[in-house]
Amino acid sequence: MTPEKAEGRPRQGDPHDTTSPTATLPSAADVAALLALSDERDRELVLRLYTWRLGYAHGYALGAQDGRLAEVTERDQAWNSLARRVLSIAMPDGPEARESAARRLRAAEAGTRRDAAEHWRARWAELYRLSKDERFCREAAARDPFHRDYAQTVALILRAKRLAGAA
C-alpha cells in the first residue's frame, strides 16, 4: 500500500483531488443561478401543493353535500313508500286501499268471465294502441311512478320493448 493511500489522501488525477490543476470550482454566478433555479422550483412546488390541497378540500365538500342530498331524497322516497303501505292497511277506506282493491276486483272479474280470453285480447290491444300514442306516453312518463295506473305502466313497458326491438 502506498503512503498516500495509507494517509487517506487522494492520489494525483483522482476526481476528489482538489490539489490537482484540472479541478475547477464553479463560479459565484453559476452557484447563484443554480440557487435561484432551485428557489423558483421550490415556489412552484409549494403553489402546486397548495392548489392540489385546495381542490381536494373543495371536491370533498361538494361530494359530501351531494351525498347528503341523495340521502335526503332516498329517505323521503322510502318514507313515502312505507307510508303508502301503512295507509292502505290502516285505512281500509283510504285512497290507496281503494285503488288497490279496485285493481284486485278488476283482475278477479276478468278472470271469472266466460269471455276472459276475449276480454284480455281486447285489453292488450288497447294497451298496444296506447303504447303508440305519444301524448298518452308523455303524460304517463311525467307522472310519479307510484301514481301511475296499470294502463300507463304497461303502455310504457310495451313502448320500451318496441323501441328496444327497433334499435
Low-confidence stretches: none
Please write the string of helix (H) and strand (E) elements: HHHHHH
Biggest pleated-sheet summary: none
Number of domains: 2
Range of helix content: over 70%
Task: Classify the secondary structure makeup into a structural class.
Answer: mainly alpha
Write down the Rg: 41 Å
Strand content: under 5%
Helix tally? 6
- Cα(first) to Cα(last) distance is 89 Å
- Could you tell me the number of beta strands? 0
SSE blueprint and pairings:
Blueprint: H1 3-6, H2 28-90, H3 95-112, H4 116-131, H5 134-142, H6 150-166
Helix pairs in contact: 2-3, 4-6, 5-6
How does this model look, in words?
There is one protein chain. The chain has helices spanning 3-6, 28-90, 95-112, 116-131, 134-142, 150-166. By secondary structure, the protein is an all-alpha fold. It has 2 domains: 44-112; 116-167, no CATH class. α2 (28-90) crosses α3, α4 packs across α6 (150-166) and α5 (134-142) packs across α6. The longest helix is centred in the middle third of the chain and has 63 residues, at 28-90. It is elongated. The N and C termini lie far apart (89 Å).
